[in-house]
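Worked example 2:
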Amino acid sequence: MQKITIAQLPAHAGEQVKIGAWLSNKRSSGKIAFLQLRDGTGFVQGVVVKAEVGEEVFAQAKALTQETSLYITGEVKEDTRSSFGYELAVIGIEVIHEAVDFPITPKEHGTEFLMDNRHLWLRSRKQHAIMKIRNEIIRATYEFFNENGFVKVDPPILTGSAPEGTSELFATKYFEEDAYLSQSGQLYMEAAAMALGKVFSFGPTFRAEKSKTRRHLIEFWMIEPEMAFTEHHESLEVQEQFVAHVIQSVLKNCPLELERLERDTTKLEKIKAPFPRISYDDAIKFLNDNGFDDISWGDDFGAPHETAIAESYDMPVFITNYPIGIKPFYMQPHPERDDVVLCADLIAPEGYGEIIGGSERIHDFDLLKKRIEEHKLDEEAYKWYLELSKYGAVPHSGFGLGLERTVAWISGAEHVRETIPFPRLLNRLYP
């Protein structure tokens, strides 16, 4: 008998098959037992009918405990009542390992309890669905950049300098030198772009930011493209095409997961390029006109401000041209103004906040050197970065997309802690 996965069941309708699975839940009566089975590829119901399998197998099915591992044999049958569309008419059960007193039961549990048991919580239907959507976003990311001529480059995680200063970095010793866990691979990606034209990285980044909001993690993953010979407006087009591609890929390839999460997909189906744009100046005016007296020109936006702006659109919205004083040293000044830079943040709808930050980068050596001095950064540590604008400088732009915030938005997750397998939070380093 062929051993297959749950995901392969639809191709074997009417056949007898064998699957390896865990029992996630069960219910039974005097004559029939329903086994909720999972194997990592999906979920399926196994139906055990006493009259068809006999007393011994039926008694075995009724005695099964949650998360016991099994080999199940049965016939694949269509089931129009389930979203999966198939069920397994069980004829045989082989217990691999009996699980006793699995701590996460079908009842309600508190968040801290679930986080303490994150290694087991991942097995639940909701967490499974979020991880599958995360995986699809990753797959679609590689697809988009590979199809558009980008080269994958891996920047270092240990660095001797920081793109945005060292106030929110984790410091460590690198033998006799001071080093930091990377908060961004951007500067190294700029160097790679000068060699390879269009590049992207995809890796972990770290922010020693003492924040407990639903949008923040200490360790998270970033997608960071950099493009030579590319101006800011051209970068915005790449950003919106990338996000639209990811959305459409999830809608196409994760319908069961979105349904399991009860995600309103009509909101996602609207997401198509181009995205609306609003200047920082107009955003401040909009907020002030709508009762936000706590913000004025020169301030950065908080979560309530971003949410208010996003609620005026049913699409992601770019906020462009922020004040130079609240942005990093490497951003290119606006050609017609000396108080703002050529940058944009992409704000996701439904209160999920900023998912992309990007800008055109300074490529003038003297200006870049001046900015480094103004930000009181160690010029020696940035010597290599300055040399990028010394030897064949060109206009170039890039951006960074935060994976977990994007997963949260697309999946409808309430908190980013559910969008990464093992979240690192201000008060959590376990498990």
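The chain has two domains: 3-97, 118-418. The chain is about 30% helix and 25% strand.
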